[in-house]
Amino acid sequence: MYTGTAVFDVLLPGDSRSLKAKRSYVRPIVAALRRFEVAAAEVGALDLVGRAEIGVAVVAPDAGQVGRVLDSCERLMAGRPEIELLSAKRRTHAEDD
């Protein structure tokens, strides 16, 4: 069994000047990520408007599957026209780590 995590640091559009507006961008992104059967949530920069950190976690029977799912999540994030993906940090752990 392998687990993988990724944290995406994103820059939101200039009109996200309130936490309510920020949520209007983050919620659809999290919903789109969950279609890959991962756990996804806003995990950082919670009080900052204009920035968000979105985390995903996946469990799979082999490391290759974990990598493919995280690749798909990263492609989705990079392909969203309304945000700018600033960084992506990924980690994979084996059962005996």
Summary?
This protein is an alpha+beta fold and 97 residues long.
- Oligomeric form: single chain
Strand line-up of the largest beta sheet:
2-3-1-4
State mean pLDDT (0 to 100 scale): 92
Largest sheet: 4 strands, antiparallel
Task: Give the total of beta strands.
Answer: 4
Helix content: 25-40%
Contiguous uncertain segments of 5+ residues: none
What structural class should be given to the helix and strand makeup?
alpha+beta
Distance N terminus to C terminus?
11 Å
Question: Strand-and-helix sequence, N→C?
Answer: EHEEHE
Strand content range: 35-45%
Number of helical elements = 2
Task: Give the overall form.
Answer: elongated
Rg over CA atoms = 14 Å
Description:
This protein has 97 residues and is of the alpha+beta class. It has helices at 19-34, 63-79; strands at residues 2-11, 39-44, 51-60, 84-94. A 4-stranded antiparallel beta sheet has the order 2-3-1-4, covered by helices on one side. It is elongated and about 45 Å long. The mean pLDDT is 92.
What are the main properties of this structure?
single chain, 97 residues, alpha+beta, 4-stranded antiparallel sheet, 2 helices, 4 strands
Secondary structure elements and pairings:
Blueprint: E1 2-11, H1 19-34, E2 39-44, E3 51-60, H2 63-79, E4 84-94
Antiparallel strand pairs: 1-3, 1-4, 2-3
